[in-house]
Amino acid sequence: MAINYRGGMKAPSLLEHCRKLRRRATPSERRLWLLLRGPEFEPFKFRRQHQFGRFILDFFCPAKRLAIELDGPPHETPVGKERDQARDFLLGLAGVRVLRFANEEFALRTNYVLAQIRAALLE
Asked: Can you tell me the mean pLDDT for 88-108?
């Protein structure tokens, strides 16, 4: 970590935080990443833990400007839902469509989630 001009520690950069998130991916994120990289989603390419402005997107397809978010329990609280709505609105203004799925939904209804992603890519 770098030292700032006042002698204190600088906060890690957003890019460093993206790298940390990639290393600490949840089981659902790891599984979806493997599926998104498979032949079923060709020719579309995805990035994971991708920095977009001041946001970090779980998965992002630049060609379609599609973000996929896998949400855990913090996103289910009223505050979490409000933050996600505001974030999705700002991303929408930048031309990014966001698909959100709960980790549990992905685990229990994987084929449904994949079908939703495919449909969004083909729109």
From this structure: 94
